[in-house]
Amino acid sequence: ITEKDVQEIIKRTKCKNTQSINIEKFINDLTLARNIFILSKIPSTAKQLEKDLKEIIKTSEKLLNKLKVTPAGNAAIEFEKNHIEAFHMLANSSGFLDTHVRERFEKIIASIEGIKLLHRVSVHSLNDLEKRSHYSESQKAKEFLIGDALPKIYERHFGDRWRRSKPSGGGKYGGPGIRFIQACLEKMGMNISKDGDSIEQIVRRYKKRTSDKSK
After folding, report:
1. The pTM is what?
2. Which of 1, 25, 122, 145 makes an SS bond possible with 56, Cβ 3.0 to 4.6 Å?
């Protein structure tokens, strides 16, 4: 979210109270709200992440196996696995190994440690991801963004209570509050029209769900 984005959002909102708006704080609040929106993309993100993690695990295993077939690589793996503390102690002793040889060997060991760490982290992340078999939080994240986060940002920066204007002729709800959320969503790349719900419907559904919980 840039300063230009915020200026366009303010312009499209058409709210009278714009004199005291702090652009920097406005950007920070919208950036935070945008990160909440990213949570609503968990299903597609998780699917790609799972694919990437499997590829990383496969590649790291290939690298380790490739190192094992070379004498220097195999020796480094053994040292890294069983004698790493002794190696570092001897390597720092005067006269142990040529400096150039020692530095090359240490680089190989550091690479092996890095590959193994990458492998462990990827396996752990993949296992954690696979445990999350459903993503029911996706819809809730979107509703929280539209029904709570953005209205609060509106109130904080425009100094007015967020509300929707009731249409006199039975049309769609409008007003600065609705226009503000619509402008923010567009800047975040979020299109809710494809879901079939209006902003007003989502806000109403969110408030009903949260009020039911508090009872």
Report:
1. 0.54
2. 122
